Amino acid sequence: MQDPADEFAAIARDIASRTQAAGVRVATAESLTSGAIANALGAAPDASEWFQGGVVAYAESVKRSVLGVTAESVTSTQGARELAEGVARLLDADATVAVTGVGGPGPEDGEPAGSVYAAVSVRGKILDAHFQFDGGDPSAVVHQTVRAALEMLRDALPR
């Protein structure tokens, strides 16, 4: 599999262009993707001007103690929304993207493999989505999640 920073470069360039035009600072909160979204964003043009950074919150305790997730299940719509809000506060960002889910190959916390929750927040407006990817291959789930998250962020940013 290609490095997400290479494969997703066109989407990241669009995000860079939109954030710079709007004066928006971006941050990520990632669970199952373990920093792959931040990797793609950090390789985009002039990232140091608009990308604040990211938090890889793989462990539930990190999601709760660092990012303030209170949802009963961290693998949920509410969990993704709270990750997005928490990283915005923590890293002083205007726009955030957050993902949490089950990479597989088996189910976890009552969710099937490939179940992914994502949220994007832009200046306080939050959008969320639930994806059900084929959970047979964890690396494929991560790959699909990175693409979906980057596209969600790009589409939520002002043109």
Automatic annotation (TrEMBL):
- Coiled-coil regions, chain positions: none
What the entry lists under Pfam families is as follows: CinA
Location of the CinA C-terminal domain: 10-156
Q: Which InterPro entries does the record cross-reference, listed alphabetically?
A: CinA-like_C (IPR036653), CinA_C (IPR008136)
Against SUPFAM superfamilies, the record matches this protein to: CinA-like
Q: What is this protein called?
A: CinA family protein
The species is: Agromyces badenianii
